[in-house]
Structures are given as structure tokens and as C-alpha cells.
Write a structure and sequence with these properties.
By secondary structure, this protein is α/β, with parallel strands linked by helices. Helices cover 39% and strands 21% of the residues. The chain has two domains: 190 residues, Isopropylmalate Dehydrogenase (3-Layer(aba) Sandwich); 135 residues, 3-Layer(aba) Sandwich (Isopropylmalate Dehydrogenase). The chain is globular, with a radius of gyration of 20 Å.
């Protein structure tokens, strides 16, 4: 089977880790009889440097014409002084909107081999999924600046429709049904009207999924509970901004943000897959970035967009085996432990596939 993949290497360590994911996919193709055709496109800071905009139309068109999208990372301090609409990160928001990708699936797992890398003093293994709404809320609401009585004011608007909440809720309930049948909806319903509507819609959906153990949790409590006892969670569903923050918190509990993959999905099989970490320009070009999050993102692509789960399982198992073997990049190594670089970690995973 042949699959076309729009490849967006991006900025910083993005090209390095994206290359590693492509190499792993090529090995999967050789082993299981698939062909992956990659077409590279620019987005983020490199697109600003070349085209003057973070998301060229050529990139959007190429992504729409592909079977799926694999992205490295975008952004960096070089472009921090640009106006908001021209920042590299606007490429991500633009792609999610242009491709109608409204749900973000972010697994967070503490591997048995990395128990000592968890920053908590007492920790047990955990395996959760955060389902984040991706195209609504404060990141897409009305925003601007105006002159007020006390000078310049800036505002960003949180707004959700019943339709937006219901569709992300269905993704979360369906995800829970395939896992431990336990779902926590995270909101701020004691303060925000948008969260009160969120909770109303989630309660209505819960009645349609009686097999799922459902509960509500305020976002500040959720942040505390993730630190207190992350193993209590199976699936969490929440809004765009809350999901952005909580998934980064969860990533640190796994040992490193360099381990966490993500899938951005809509109603079709076309998805965008990327590690949740940033472009890390301080280590770009040094060959020390952790490629695991990008490689696991490629595995999610195989599972969610292409429906070839045996191949995805092979990548997941290879990553876990390499960690059990004791191989560590710098971000997941304890003090005094020998580390390996980006290419060697990738080579070890290739050996295990």
C-alpha cells in the first residue's frame, strides 16, 4: 500500500526529529510491504524567511492533497518580535483550521523503565490520554487592542458553541470506550459561562454512554491531581487552552516532553501528527534532541489515519524495548548515566523493529 505524507520539518530541531520519524516509517514500509512518499513543505519561521508568511498557500494545498501530515516543530526567538498574526505558531493554528482538525489526542504514559525519571518522589506507572479541543476557545476567539481609561487594553475571547463541545465530547467518550471506560471532563464552570455550557453538553453526552464512568473536574484541581496521583486518570477532555497547559504538565510527569506524541484529527482520515514539544533552538544542530516523540507521532499516524495497527504496535514496542535496554538521550537520563544522541537513539529503535 502506498501512502502520501506531507512533511513539514519546520524550525530548530524540527528537521532533525522529522528525519528520524521518516527513517522509521521507511523501515516499517520495508518490513510490512508499504510505501511512504514524502513531500516537503515550509511552515513556521522558515516559511516567514522565505515567503514572508508563516503558512504559505502551497503548504495548505499540499497538506490537503496528502493522506496525512507529519510535522516537526515551529518557532524560535528569531521571530519573537513579529506581530501576533505573523508569528511562526500561527502556522499551526492555520493548519488546524484549514484542515478542519478539531480534536487533539495527546497520550501521556510513564514507561516502567523511566520510573526514576519522573520528578515525583512517589510514582507508579500511568497511561492516560488527554483529548483537547483544537479549533475553538480563546486561541480562535475575537482578540485585539483598544485604548481604555487606563491606557492600552488587550483582550482575547473564550467562546464555544454547543456543536464544538459536542463533537469533541464524542471523540473523548469514544476514546474512553476503547480504553478503561473512565472519562474526566476538565472545565472552570464555577467562573466561566463557556465552561458552564461545556459542562451541560458533556452531561447530556454522558447519558448516551452509560458504560463510561464520567466526572467533572475544575481545571485548577485537575492540575493538582495530575501531580498528586496521575494514575487515577484514563481519559481527560478539555478546552483548547486548558488542554495545552495540562498536557505539557502531564508530559513532565513522564520524564520528558521529548517523549510525547500527538494526533490532530477531524472527521476524515486526514490528520496532522507532531510531537508536543517546541523547536528547542538552543540544541538545534547538536544531534542531542530526543526523537522519540516524533517517532511515536509517526506511529499514531499509522494507527489513526492509515488504520495499520500492527505496524504502529511495532514502533511502540520498539521504543519501549530500547528504553528497557537502558538507552537514554540527555533529557531522560539521570545524573551520571551515559547518554546517546538523536541518530543513535533512532538506530536503536530501527534495530528493534
Amino acid at each position: 500500500m502506498k501512502y502520501s505524507i506531507a512533511l513539514i520539518p519546520g524550525d530548530g530541531i524540527g528537521p532533525e526529529i522529522a528525519r528520524c520519524a521518516c527513517v522509521v516509517l521507511e523501515r516499517i514500509g520495508e518490513k510490512f510491504g508499504h510505501e511512504f512518499a514524502f513531500s516537503a513543505y515550509l511552515a513556521g519561521g522558515c516559511a516567514i524567511d522565505t515567503f514572508g508568511v508563516p503558512l504559505p498557500e502551497e503548504t495548505v494545498a499540499g497538506c490537503r492533497a496528502s493522506d496525512s501530515v507529519l510535522l516537526g516543530a515551529v518557532g524560535g526567538p528569531r521571530w519573537d518580535s513579529l506581530p501576533g498574526e505573523l508569528r511562526p505558531e500561527r502556522a499551526l493554528l492555520g493548519l488546524r483550521a484549514a484542515l478542519s482538525l478539531y480534536s487533539n489526542i495527546r497520550p501521556a504514559r510513564l514507561y516502567p523503565a523511566l520510573l526514576d525519571s519522573c520528578p515525583l518522589r512517589v510514582a507508579e506507572e500511568f497511561d492516560m490520554v488527554i483529548v483537547r479541543e483544537l479549533t475553538g476557545g480563546i486561541y480562535f476567539g475575537e482578540r485585539g487592542r483598544r485604548v481604555g481609561a487606563e491606557g492600552i487594553e488587550a483582550y482575547d475571547t473564550e467562546c464555544y458553541s454547543e456543536t464544538e463541545i459536542r463533537r469533541i465530547g464524542k471523540v473523548a467518550f469514544e476514546t474512553a470506550m476503547k480504553r478503561g471506560k473512565k472519562l474526566v471532563s476538565v472545565d472552570k464552570a464555577n467562573v466561566l459561562e463557556s465552561s458552564r455550557l461545556w459542562r451541560e453538553v458533556m452531561h447530556a453526552l454522558a447519558a448516551e454512554y452509560p458504560a463510561v464512568e464520567y466526572s467533572d473536574m475544575l481545571v485548577d484541581n485537575a492540575a493538582m491531581q495530575l501531580v498528586r496521583d496521575p494514575a487515577q486518570f484514563d481519559v481527560l477532555v478539555t478546552s483548547n487552552m486548558f488542554g495545552d497547559i495540562l498536557s505539557d504538565e502531564a508530559s513532565q510527569l513522564t520524564g520528558s516532553i521529548g517523549l510525547l506524541a500527538s494526533a490532530s484529527l477531524g472527521d476524515s482520515s486526514l490528520g496532522m501528527y507532531e510531537p508536543i514539544h517546541g523547536s528547542a533552538p538552543d540544541i538545534a544542530g547538536k544531534g542531542i534532541a530526543n526523537p522519540i516523540a516524533a517517532i511515536l507521532s509517526a506511529a499514531m499516524m499509522l494507527r489513526y489515519s492509515f488504520g495499520i495497527t500492527r505496524e504502529a504496535d511495532a514502533i511502540d514496542a520498539a521504543v519501549e524495548a530500547v528504553l528497557l535496554d537502558g538507552h537514554r538521550t540527555a533529557d531522560i537520563a539521570l545524573k551520571g548515566v551515559k547518554t546517546i544522541g538523536t541518530d543513535e537513539m533512532t538506530a536503536r529503535i530501527l534495530e528493534r523493529i
